[in-house]
Q: What sequence folds into this?
DNA sequence: GCGTTAACTCAACTTTCTTGAGTGTTCAAG
DNA sequence: CTTGAACACTCAAGAAAGTTGAGTTAACGC
């Protein structure tokens, strides 16, 4: 039973340099600003090698000098930082009714974000819309296309024909061909495709509460509920890109089995409130319901927290993450409320006395979470050494 | 919130060579025997580079020539294969009542296996026993110590003080200090520590039904139930090494929530049978009960299969593995029976028409599964390129 | 038979890293 | 105030690994 060997790249001078460059960028990004010697120690390279690489990066416009810092004895340190306009990333979130786009700079600051309603969810329409948005965004911001390092695309999973197909708010026509390749050809850019939860998780790791974390889980409240997993600094995609479909597992709430997604998701809260005659159209409606202490909403929140507690037990015991982050298209207030009410399972490997992070944290939320996450995929790539890259 | 940056190695000539060597070994191992040009294509190196590396590996005794193969036109291919006695790995499984050890060669063939009862489960006693077994094994097989590439150690988790502590058949005194370091110092060898499930999974990947798979899950029947996860060819350890503690999650059987481990584990079957007046002492007893079609055993098997079906739904939807493997200290017959009776969840990302592997497979079983898995950890290391190593 | 195909080797070249000596700045001890 | 240690960084030489392109050998097919 011989399967194809994943193309694991051998190292040659060119690839070594590229690898080390990214290592240096990564080290600088991690601490904000750094000097040559410091980077050398962190990377296991000689200071001379680091010096040469930094000189390269300065020429390429990826770094800026940040003045000197005299730290104790010795020659003061010439510091360097990532140059924000050294590169840009385009983030795209495709939903059945609209396409969201964002342009972010090298340090992750969004320059523009945009929502384009979709006339129809056909493949051609989507490609056309994304393409047009890219051009428009570049024109508006005067960012040259060659400064774009790539595009991240968030699409609703699952990918391919699976047992969950048909149950999702799906996009027709994407089950044939590799979406990444299709977009890459159309946009003429390196493209990275992920599901919303993984993208949001990577964004959190690049610029959110998960900065510096290498092992964590992210529960993403979207239409349904998704689980983003980061292991060893890499998003876990699974064999076919469908890892993290946590919404359809069965958990126990008040002794009764329920589908997780039916208890904790945007659809779930809408359905629950509709059952009590309350109509919510969007996230803002939820916020006002919450501030007016709507009884039905509070009932739902409590029940969601109970379901979440079961899910937490599974996530923690299966992944042993540093922390679990809650985020997505849900108002902060509600997330905070749920977090406060979620019982942290006693019988969990995460129930340890020497924790550095809370077991449950709130991440970035809001409508653009996944879109910015899409852009973060590109940034993540730019700061990840390439030799023997775990994809 | 700045955390310590994982020491990601920069590439220098020495590390590049080591990386490429392992890449070549890996490519050869993957296909059994291979020629230079073939390896060059697979690794992205030039044939000249591969030639030089192979010449090195021949000198080091890690490869043997395997004669020529004339494949179509052109000069016949000089083939190479891994030299079985090119290196050895020592595997250790520590249990509260005994220590199991095994010596395997570079291709994974076990030379000797041994069980040493433990007078007491104290740390010092264990270290002493392992050390003595290593010496004895080397003496018996006339393998020089410098041919040993390392030792793999399997210890019952969870590691550290967690919410599951105290519920396991535990070893006292290992919560302080890093077990890997302690063993490494004592044995004077590179040491890799894992839990039983992950080790068994790696063994399956090196020489079992998971050969060539990079993303799969392994359910290990031990005292309890453990989940080994392989993602992108690497074992998932979690932030604190405790990933895969699936035994304590709650699943639903016949509409009622139960702890998974209470339904599917060696302890569970023993308890169930004891409740009906049947005493089983070991794996052989189970085999004979099965061949005599014991009614109580069959009831347990059905119930275990139902619990497993719930677990499968969780594993598949969270990891999207290529397959899920069942193995461990359970007779083949019983595993096969359970697999046959386990309902494959419909609503799963793994329920896809284009599958190459069954959703549920039986892996290696038997008493030495984890011990050989421990040795496989060392082999895995030897065939894994080191630059930017994912640990 | 003879040209084509393909694997492999040899020798020259390139890239990148490391090493060790040297420069400049800061701090602290005498 | 002087002197020396500590530290960051640069320069130039050297080493290690990979690549390139020409040349050799062997099998196949027309």
A:
């Amino acid at each position: 039973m011989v399967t194809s060997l994943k193309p694991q790249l051998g190292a040659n001078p060119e690839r070594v340099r590229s690898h080390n460059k990214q290592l240096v960028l990564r080290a600088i990004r991690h601490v904000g600003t750094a000097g040559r010697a410091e980077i050398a120690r962190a990377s296991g390279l000689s200071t001379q090698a680091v010096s040469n690489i930094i000189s390269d990066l300065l020429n390429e416009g990826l770094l800026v000098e940040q003045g000197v810092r005299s730290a104790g004895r010795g020659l003061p340190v010439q510091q360097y930082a990532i140059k924000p306009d050294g590169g840009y990333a385009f983030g795209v979130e495709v939903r059945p009714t609209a396409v969201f786009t964002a342009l972010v700079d090298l340090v992750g600051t969004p320059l523009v974000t945009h929502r384009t309603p979709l006339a129809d969810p056909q493949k051609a329409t989507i490609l056309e819309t994304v393409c047009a948005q890219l051009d428009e965004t570049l024109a508006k911001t005067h960012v040259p296309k060659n400064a774009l390092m790539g595009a991240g695309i968030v699409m609703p999973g699952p990918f391919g024909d699976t047992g969950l197909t048909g149950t999702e708010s799906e996009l027709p026509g994407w089950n044939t061909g590799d979406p990444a390749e299709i977009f890459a050809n159309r946009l003429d850019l390196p493209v990275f495709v992920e599901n919303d939860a993984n993208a949001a998780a990577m964004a959190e790791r690049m610029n959110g509460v998960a900065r510096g974390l290498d092992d964590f889980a992210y529960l993403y409240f979207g239409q349904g509920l998704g689980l983003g997993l980061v292991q060893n600094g890499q998003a876990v995609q699974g064999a076919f890109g469908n890892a993290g479909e946590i919404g359809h597992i069965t958990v126990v709430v008040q002794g009764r089995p329920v589908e997780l997604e039916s208890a904790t998701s945007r659809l779930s809260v809408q359905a629950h409130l509709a059952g009590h005659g309350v109509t919510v159209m969007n996230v803002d409606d939820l916020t006002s319901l919450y501030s007016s202490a709507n009884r039905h909403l509070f009932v739902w929140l409590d029940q969601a927290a109970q379901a979440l507690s079961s899910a937490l037990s599974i996530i923690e015991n299966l992944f042993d993450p540093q922390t679990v982050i809650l985020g997505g298209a849900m108002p902060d207030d509600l997330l905070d409320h749920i977090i406060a009410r979620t019982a942290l399972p006693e019988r969990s490997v995460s129930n340890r006395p020497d924790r550095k992070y809370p077991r449950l944290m709130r991440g970035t939320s809001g409508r653009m979470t996944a879109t910015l996450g899409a852009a973060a995929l590109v940034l993540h790539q730019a700061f990840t050494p390439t030799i023997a890259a775990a994809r």
